[in-house]
Amino acid sequence: MQPSLDSLHQILGADSLLTEADDLAQYGKDWTNQYTPSPMAIALPKTTEQVQAIVQWANEHSVSLVPSGGRTGLSGGAVANNGELVIALDKMNKIVGFESSTQQVQCQAGVITEQLQQFALDNNLYYPVDFASSGSSQIGGNIATNAGGIKVIRYGLTRDWVMSLTVVTGKGEILTLNSGLIKNATGYDLRHLFIGSEGTLGIITEATIKLTRQPTNLTVLMLAIPELDKVKELLNNFQKDIDLTAFEFFSEEAMQKVMSHHDLPRPVETEAPFYCLLEFDATSEDILEKALGCFEHGLENEYIFDGVMSQSQQQAEELWKYREYISETISSQKPYKNDIAVTPDKVSDFLQRVDAIVANEYPEFEVIWFGHIGDGNLHLNILAPDEMDYAEFTKACEKVNPLIFEVLKELGGSISAEHGVGLLKKPYLNYTRSEAEISYMKGIKAAFDPNNIMNPGKLF
């Protein structure tokens, strides 16, 4: 029997508890297509104390909770499909403090990623964690999934920028973790347990994020390459002379779809099976000369067919479109996505073996590859045929998953590089984590959330 919501109205106020069907549908899902949202209600707290009161109420009434940020995830981690109460952090969207001497900014979990990036720029600083959904994703969600994005090769993951957290545990206790300290050698750093926990241990309500210096002259190279076997050599050649901020790749099929959908010209004259997009901060003529030298070396040794280098910020932004527009371009075909990772030296082997699996099992399916090849993160997108029922298509893709994940396991890879496990990847966790690891992870969850109310059914 569903408990009365009267006490939640008293905690939140009438304007911060939503029960209309449209609201339930909007807040009860993320960007996955496989699940039908059916939450009990949507709570929109404004303070950490209100979040604590909600969690205490949920423990008292045995109500499951689903934390909700920007709902841009692709693994079902923010889906409420079993009568849960959604706690959406949209109203906790303020930057509450800034210390210029340490370059640290304190913000609530509902702050939009782009909002934090702009705040950094306004203060002549830089927040480098960046991805296509930065205009709608929230900092709390980024932390809960340890979001990566396009600049990991230079700047690392979200984890590398989190100095402290305020959280409400599954028990309903408020913890302040690390307090922005650079050095703190006092035992277990619980902050790092919450980073990447997918809301299964508690709810992140505030974070202190460090910023860095702005790049001065970001320059982009678009390269046409004949085969991925040469990517390792290409990457090594550039990295020995240049600090790359991004190293992306995509297939010719992806290129064609973006050009057609957005009416864009081909950026390089030579058509190739794959393209790499490299970004670096050209702070001097010496760095530009080194980049051109690496490019010429690639042409001479035939692991680069052709290329173009940006001559202005506008041209750099134009070149990025060919990579950044891929997800939006193919979204109408409801792709079945696999966000996976291997070490960069194994990318070519993995991609070729997976291509062979998909071609053998489903030769009629169209496959689009792209990803952050500099850190080994690949996005495999299998496109749904127009004439095929989507549920049937999804089942077909799920039948192939174990074959793909066996290859991943053999190569020491991960079934989820960026979007977490959620509902979608839950059945396959054992391909990346051992039984012993999973047992310890379950023990950690039980310590923070003994009644299993925090995002139950996700991860495990």
From TrEMBL:
Alphabetical UniProt keywords: FAD, Flavoprotein, Oxidoreductase
Keyword Repeat listed: no
Keyword Oxidoreductase: yes
Cofactor: FAD
InterPro entries, per database record: FAD-bd_oxidored_4_C, FAD-bd_PCMH, FAD-bd_PCMH-like_sf, FAD-bd_PCMH_sub1, FAD-bd_PCMH_sub2, FAD-linked_Oxase-like_C, FAD-oxidored/transferase_4, Oxid_FAD_bind_N
Domain FAD-binding PCMH-type stretches: 35-214
Domain of life: Bacteria
Name this polypeptide is given: FAD-binding oxidoreductase
The organism of origin for this protein: Kangiella marina
